[in-house]
Amino acid sequence: MLLSAIYATALDLPGRHFGSIGKHLPLALGPFAAISLNAARRRAGASINDLLTLFLAGLVIGAALMLLRNGAIGTLTGPEMQSDNSVFGAVNRNFAGLACGLLIIASAGILLEQIPTLRTRPAAGASVIAALILSVGTASVLLELLQSRTALIATIFSALVWLIIVVVSAMRLRVGAWRARIFVLMGPLVFAALAVLSILIFQKLSERPLMQGPLAELAAAGPAILSGRLADVASGLSGAESRLQLLAVALDLISQRPWLGWGPDASLLIGLVSPFPDLKELNQFHNGYIQVAVSFGVLGTLLLLALLMAVIWSAITAYGRRSGSDKIMPAPFGTAVALAVYVASTNGTETILFVKPCAVVCVILAALACLPNKAVRA
User: Fold this and answer.
1) Whose CA is closest to 55, among 36, 69, 28?
2) Alpha-carbon distance 149 to 183, whole Å?
3) What number of other Cβ atoms are within 10 A of residue 324's Cβ?
4) 334-373, pLDDT tens digit by residue?
5) Which one of 5, 108, 170, 185 has the largest count of C-beta atoms within 10 Å of its C-beta?
6) DSSP track, 252-314
């Protein structure tokens, strides 16, 4: 980020490149927060699963409070269903949808962790499980009312990944009685049923297609755009959906600076180069991956992909080596993976601004997953 900001400032590229660094500071501080929390957890003699469950509980409470403070109850009990950006007052519809997705995934992870407590603490365990099921159901209904395609698709996709990981891990556990195994599988089955129900309801409530516009025209204009002739083919894309027009503008920008990009702050680029009048006021590309390619170029994108693969590999290898209080159980691990999938899915169709809170979540979870076992030297 710093190197890109220095490069863009030296070449006097459009944007306040050092001004955007403060927005990314929480992402950089995420690993330090995870390391500090893990050190405190070890001193207290607690399991890392307790720390992950506490973190997921924070997600549930935070997302629920945000939705409640902005009229979630009124939306559920109102006479008419709304799907515009004013459903939650000052909170953007897509941002509220992301909060619903986080609430569902985190609640499902805690739910599966709480099922075994029914044996030892039946009253407390049943109360927590009932509250979690209620929160998952409520957030699912809110997703339908919001009709946020991005949040719904990302939530369903993450739910399927979570379901596969947890069920496969549960089947590999050595459970003494078949009833105990049923308890282990009850959580993902309930969650899967809610996910399927969400799809069915969404299809009835929403008639919005996933994509409008001449995709064939964009594909045909691709070579001309990449060769720097966007203005020549802009008229053929005048009837396309704004996301397709944004993609055309992004391809034009990438073709101009393919290797190192335009710098961290790309908020002014659309207004400066777009031949489409309706896009002049926009400052994001509604696609996090395209935004990264525009800002950091091919080399920066490859570097970020290499770092991501290193984190994934470290998390997978650490997951297999852990033991004792450092061993992560299937439910928290599956939930962490589902959250990562959620952000990866959302980042493909949503503005980076809305994804940043989710990205902070994944940075902290990734750091926790990659921390070495206390018996292994870092």
Assistant:
1) 36
2) 32
3) 10
4) 888 888 888 888 877 766 555 566 666 666 666 666 666 5
5) 108
6) HHHHHSTTT-S-S--TTHHHHH---GGGTT----S-HHHHHHHHHHHHHHHHHHHHHHHHHHH
The total of other beta-carbon atoms located within 10 Å of residue 140's CB is 22
8 contact partners, CB below 8 Å, separation of at least 6: 15, 17, 261, 262, 263, 264, 265
d(CA 34, CA 55): 10
- Token pair 């927060």 in the structure block, residue: 33
Q: Are 114 and 125 in contact (CB under 8 A)?
A: yes
Tokens, residue 189 = 């089955």
Domain boundaries, the chain: 47-210+290-370
Tokens found for residue 55:
């973190």
Side chain identity at residue 346, one-letter code: T
Q: Are 246 and 276 in contact (CB under 8 A)?
A: no
**Number of Cβ atoms within 10 Å of the Cβ of 5:** 19
* Distances 23 to 171, 210, 288, 350 between C-alpha atoms, Å: 42, 30, 15, 17
pLDDT tens-place string over residues 26-38 = 666 767 777 787 7
Residue 212 per-residue DSSP state: -
CA distance 75 to 81: 7
Give one DSSP letter per residue of 116-135, joined into a string. Answer: THHHH-HHHHHHHHHHHHHH
**Residue with tokens 């939705």, as numbered in its chain:** 67
Q: Say whether 79 sits in a helix, a strand or coil.
A: coil
pTM: 0.78
